[in-house]
Amino acid sequence: MQIRITTPTRGFRPWQFSLLTLAVLAIAFCFTPVSSVFACPFCTAVSQTLRQEMEIMDAVVIASALQGDVTRNADTGEVEMKIETVLKGDSHVEAGQHVKVVYFGDVAKGRRFLLSGADPSDMQWSCLPVTPQAEQYLLRIPDIAKKNAADRLRFYLPYLQDENSMLSRDAYDEFAITPYTDLQQIKADMDHGQLVEWIQDETMSPDRKRLYLTMLGVCGSKADIPLLEGMLISTQKTSRTGLDALIACYLTLAGEPGLELINEQFLLNQQASYADTYAAIMAIRFHGTEGGVIPRSALVESLHVILDRSDLADLVIPDLARWEDWSQVDKLKELFLTADADNNWVRVPVVNYLRACPKPEAAEALKELEKADPASVRRANTFFSVPKPAAANIEPSKQ
Predict the structure, then answer these.
(1) For residue 193, what are the contacts with CB-CB under 8 A and spacing of at least 6?
(2) Hey, what CATH topology would domain 55-131 get?
(3) Measured at the alpha carbon of residue 345, what is the angle toward residues 342 and 349, in degrees to the nearest 5?
(4) What is the rounded CA–CA span in Å between residue 210 and residue 357?
(5) What is the pTM of this model?
């Protein structure tokens, strides 16, 4: 199971869910594999990739239509086809075999299709028309599936902006589900100039732009910093599409000194929108878990700023706990005690932070907070495990 994080609205707070919802979420997080968190950091797969779909099907073949619109069964949509190539499931089907497939789109005799079948005892086929280019792409997938993640990315790389939407979408989805460490391994294969062109394309979709910014962070250099700074301070929304990935890319290339601009623009700036500040938090979170460029000691200093913003403080407290920054016990105790109906959601993450903190003053603070609001303390103890420290060693993204 993969957890995908979307930008919440100002009114959204997870601590305001019902107790049943909290229980379900707690169980889900406990059983989510750690590896799923490390998928390409700002990318969201549109759907399962063709490789993944092949893995779960009993048979996958390339077939050609033996009938056209005139001779097919117009009432049932049934079309007779001939299997030309078996990509998977040669124990169930074979080349030359005729099968009947339901397809209501346009059919011409000889037109090629990708058929995916399930239930060998009574094979039911799903049907997708393919071009000659797509067919050649599909023929390679069974072998590509056997390769390591980095080699798979090298295969998909040329298709990212292919004119064939099926291929470009599949290539993007493969990148979106690939761990960041594997993305780093294909640095030498990336076309830096092409990536710079793509991220400046105002018509580029946000998801694509996020991927290309992440890739630029891998293969770029300090020479790219002026371009990224210009995008960060631009007042044009189209220039800052995919802001979380833009900030992360900038910090990857600028390093710790780059935090000054991010703090000024998005964290200290009271005029910054909630969405923009949230994007900055997500970028800092990435650098604290996967970036390997900026020490956590510098990153938490930026997050401390957020503790002074009552509408955002709860977003960063879990990060401080995971990164074992125990310098904020007094500050968080104050946040808990001064919380009102408009921001009382901050109380559960404060309790969880104090539960994880090894300092004696944290235990004393917990006793005091339990007297002030026993329900919040009980809720944290019941539905949330004690935050575990993040991995101490982060694979460096820049050598």
Answers:
(1) none
(2) OB fold (Dihydrolipoamide Acetyltransferase, E2P) (2.40.50)
(3) 150
(4) 35
(5) 0.86
